[in-house]
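Q: Here's a chain of 333 amino acids. Please give me its 3D structure as tokens.
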Amino acid sequence: MDEHGGTPAESVAESVRLTAWFTLADLPAGLALAIIAVLFPVSWAAAYWLGGGTNVLPEWFLIPILLAGLRFGPLGALVAGLLATFVAGPLLPASTATGTPQDASDWVSRGVFFIIIGELVTYLFMMVRRSVGGAVQAEAEHAGEQRFRALVQRATDMITVIDANGCVHYDSPAVERILGWAPPQRFGRSAGAFVHPDDRPAAGAAWIAVMADPTRTYTIEMRLLDSTGSWHWAESTFTNLLDEATVEGIVINHRVVDERKALQDELRHRAWHDSLTGLANRGLLRGRVESSAPAVRPDGDPTSVLFIDLDDFKTVNDGLGHDAGDRLLVQVS
């Protein structure tokens, strides 16, 4: 914070706005030209009537010259300086009392002075504006980087940045909490080494897709290796930020979905297996029989179906109860 309660970036931005206002930078070129053109007769009148009766003050013409230079650059200062040389020379008498014309040497030398001062101030202003613009951009980039770091540090999802060679360039702190890898442990190592072999083709396809089209993102599910050698399912989104100066890599947002995958596997198992014995149910049996039938696989190996019946199972259910019957089915299965 500065002494006025604003941040340095806000102070610099306010200075830029004031500079733009004073130099006509926010006005259209035509309107700026009209204002500068009006200032020439105004400067002529000021030089004539404020000269103290006998002396003129041609320094008033520095105002439109400097404005032209600040708004339109060195060429604007040059044109305005030449125009001011003529208006403040042959068109302006040396004395308002006698109307005596100025000597040619006086207004020519003054014109040279106009042009030199106009060009000098214009170049100084351009250097200052370039410096201020660089400071504003640097401050904005710094603020953006700080916000990015704050978001990444507090993110619950894992964020990995991979360089153009496919090596890990950055890991967010969440990687250590979820996978057990301290961020520097994976730096410089191939990202594919931490992906399950069965999932590497899908990861490679996602990589190729975002490299070919940086405007799109690509999301897949793959298993990631933790520090203990176990695998964790993650929903991973690939984003190409190689052209971003503050990133320069492929950003992958990993969201661990172990619980969701376990629930999906459990629901899938329940859909195709008997809840008591864990054996395949009628739907799964029908699918396996149909896929093994000779009509489907005429050149395949012979297929047999074994049917097992439990004699007097009703006697167990009726005599010992359904719980005993369930235990018998589980033992036989």
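Q: Can you summarize the key feature?
A: The longest strand covers residues 231-241.
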